[in-house]
Amino acid sequence: MGFQSADYFILLLLFLFLLCPILQAAESQEPACGKEVCGNITIPSPFGIDSSCYTHSWFRVTCNSTRNGKRPSINVNGIDLEVLDSIYSDAILISNPVTYINCERISEASVSVNLSGTPFFFSSDKNIFGSVGCGNLATVLSNEADSLGGCVQPRCDHGASESGCFTGIAGNFTSYTVNMTAMYPDSNRCASAFIFSVYSFSSAYPLPNGINFGTRHVPAVLSWNSTYCGDGGCGRPGLGPMNFHTYKVESCGNVTFHYPFSMKAQDDSNNSFKVICNKTANGKEVPLLNINGTNLQILGFDFLYGTVKVNHPITYSNCRKNHHNGMSLNLTGTRFYYSDSDNFFKSLGCGNLITIFGNETNNLIGGCLQPSCKINKKTSSIRWLSSYYS
Asked: What's this model's pTM, rounded to 2 decimal places?
């Protein structure tokens, strides 16, 4: 099996407009199933508050009165889960309890949601695994004790009070366990772990705003088996595509760019933002950016966010047929750097602990544990991670 020789970092901008329902006083009438409201949350089908709006008790929603207004919740295997939003056609956003490991009294009070025997599951497409702690390898396991993924918490040095990490997970699952393995003699094995929504963190933070060791709940996406919705399915119309345009100055191929990038000063070899418009053998124009002697194809440009998306070479480790073993593109001495909010570290392989370091080998940035290839019955698997300090 061969590997591609190049990959690129993708900056995904998700503009999500939440439409708050406008409540109007009305005379008592039959409930509008799929449009019931609790607080500011519209309850989608197949869920319902009124008994006529759901066909199975799993989809029953209770509208609770709290000090902060009305809050909808569902009960899954004896645990009440607050419903936070209903923006998906085949899933809902819930408040998922955080699990604590090796934390004495806190561990005893924490719970982990078990979805076994229900139509619900955690989707790996919409959720990721995160952990808060200091210097541990956090591993998430399936019921069969197969690794679903894992990440390495950086050490809590340089004045940081706590650190954390997050990583992708393999496959869909209904329950999980978490192991913490100390990576250093001074590691604090007390840590928290959680499954949370991949869309819940902003570009300014690798983890959701306000996440820390004291966080007790995080938003997570709960999916369900669509067969429970009947022949009509569970789909709802989604938002249409949205487009916006930037001021066009120059273009090469299908890429448009402007200041500070330019093709005009082609003879200035010291210009970090000089774009080379190269023509291929078939006449296609390809914009290139030369960084420390390496030509990188430009795939996109965003002036407002100060980012340029490029076709980035893959780094191989312990692979005899590939010469980029262990080293990445060097941005030292340039005006560019890898953004920790717009990029993810990915690894292709099976069952390895992958660590990423800064310029010095004692500067551990983070790491991830590739899941066992038994999960998807494939010979390879892709993982991604990020780490943060506070």
From this structure: 0.58
